[in-house]
Model the fold of this input.
Amino acid sequence: MGLIIRSSSIHAAGCYTTAAIHKGARVVEYTGPRISKELADEKYQDSPTTYLFGVGDGEQVIDGHGTAMFINHSCHPNCETDEFDGRIWICATRDIAPGEELTYDYHLYDGDEDEARCNCGAASCRGTMYAPEEIKRRQRLARKEERKKHPRKHK
Ligand SMILES: [Zn+2]
Done:
């Protein structure tokens, strides 16, 4: 399938298709060496950008290397990721026209302090690449911190 990497308005570089893609098609595999989550944390603890993809129960990650790692996040994407026999594929969720940028929803979780701001420009943009559940978890944490700083008096 004809995929090219070029500059993107979402993020530095993005992945574009030169050919029409049909809904449901497996577009590209998320390839790269598989390493443990511990090793990945160690390897990338000081790195602002990582291309890691959790597999199965999340104890293993794919250290992205190849075309798929350039696919940007969007809150209104045209692809999704699917696991087939332990391999991760980017699949089209609708028909995609030649020239379109490929995107999928990163659904980030387990984030550190980084706010992972989203620039996808979709009307339904969440403003962040975190999954909705992760946003809630972080809000709860923030409220907890706030209460610690400003304890309420109880009568
Ligand atoms: Zn967005």
Summary: The chain has one domain: 3-31+66-149. The two ends are 68 Å apart (CA to CA). Residues 132-149 form the longest helix (18 residues).
